[in-house]
Amino acid sequence: YLGWGGEYYEDDVDSSRIRRNIDSGATSVRAPRFPDGSTQNQWGLFLTDDWRFGGRHDLNVGVRYSHFEASLPASGGIAGVDTDADDVTGNLSYAFALTDTVRLVTNLGRGFRAPNVFDLGTFGSRPGNRFNIPNPELEPETVNSIDLGIQVGGERLAGELGLASHVRFLGLVDNSDLPRYYAAADLFVLPSRLESWGTVMLE
Length: 203
Fold this sequence. Notes:
Layout: E1 3-12, E2 17-20, E3 27-30, E4 39-53, E5 57-72, E6 81-97, E7 102-113, H1 117-121, E8 124-126, E9 130-132, E10 141-152, H2 155-160, H3 178-184, H4 199-202
Antiparallel strand pairs: 1-4, 2-3, 4-5, 5-6, 6-7, 7-10, 8-9
């Protein structure tokens, strides 16, 4: 159950904006939504392993190194900024099976998120009726978490409890639909066993 890997991601931003008067047809140049010429890149290395032993025990360990760089030129009255951040994150989780459908679970984790072009230099309206105000002084975010709980069943359990008409197991959901599901939720639960810090938590 050993897993390892790496990733590299890079963005180069070309951004411009023009306002057009629909009555007269006159146009005027506006400040771009993103600082034109901005760049950001990130890379990471990760390692995870899962040990199952004794028929009831499951131990998972994951560690990740992440490095992030962003460079934004001054734009629309907003100061330019250069960032360089890195961190080591990971998790240690353990589960003990009480029965075939009930497990005791616990997890220790650390997460990290560096500010990106959206956070550092984007000014104006965003999808979902939001308005973005940039913060060039923004520092990376980190979080340490401890979880302890009971994990119970799945689709079969929903049927046995008479909840099948009230529960939907959606499986993979398209990214464009995620904001709608998050906005409709009253409770958020992340039952991941393999991610050291899931992207869904940041979303």
